[in-house]
Amino acid sequence: MEIDHVVLAARTREQAEQALREHGLGIARGRVLPGFGLSNLVVPLGRSFLEIHYPDGGETDPALPPIGEVQRRALDRCPAPLVPVAWLAGCEDAALLRRLAAENDLAVSEVPGEGPGYAPYVLAGFGPNLIRPWLPALIHWPVPYEERPGALTARHARRPAGIVGLDVAGSEEDVKRWCGGLPEGARVVEGDTGPLRVRIGFDDGPPVTLGDVE
User: Fold this and answer.
1) What's the predicted TM-score (pTM) here?
2) Residue 12 falls inside a structural domain
3) Would 74 be classed as within a structural domain?
4) Which of 38, 47, 137, 141 has its CA 20 to 30 A from that of 90?
5) 110 occurs within a structural domain
6) pLDDT score of 178 more than 90
7) Number of structural domains, the chain?
8) Considering the domain boundaries, does residue 104 fall inside one?
9) What is the pLDDT of residues 7-37, one digit of tens each?
10) What is the DSSP string of 115-128?
11) Structural domain for 22, as ranges
């Protein structure tokens, strides 16, 4: 497995856009996330991508997971304009994803596609990673890379090469059991707060770190 994408929290859309511009990154698309009081921005990186969440003033549905509250707490802990709050590990083998989901008592959701730029996917572990934030959700895309969010077009000022590292505070044993091994690029460190920092590689210069910079 490898890191599919990382979710980051921002205080406002304007702050998110400014931080991305400073690092030479562009946005492919964004939309409202109904019921969460949030909207998102997608930053394609090739085989991986970033998903930025920011509050949009919309109403929240108490029946849905409290993603907005989790993100507010993360922003309170870290002054950075973009703070990692969740991560998803990509699984190319749908049967493996379902087996790991069954072994870890995870519900599996099949999300249909919504047209160009919105590919279908299979997801497991979305809820538990709010309680144990060091654990990723598992995701399977039944479409080729060219149809996934990482391959969307964005007006980058640099040439991103993908996510090259992610530091996560938590239990390495938990992550390995959850994923059947430690996903490529992930490093588990002491603590229990989940994702701390994500490193983006570039073909035309040094990497950039977002989040709690050491």
Assistant:
1) 0.96
2) yes
3) yes
4) 38
5) no
6) yes
7) 1
8) no
9) 999 999 999 999 999 999 999 999 999 999 9
10) BTTB--EEEE-TTH
11) 2-91+150-211
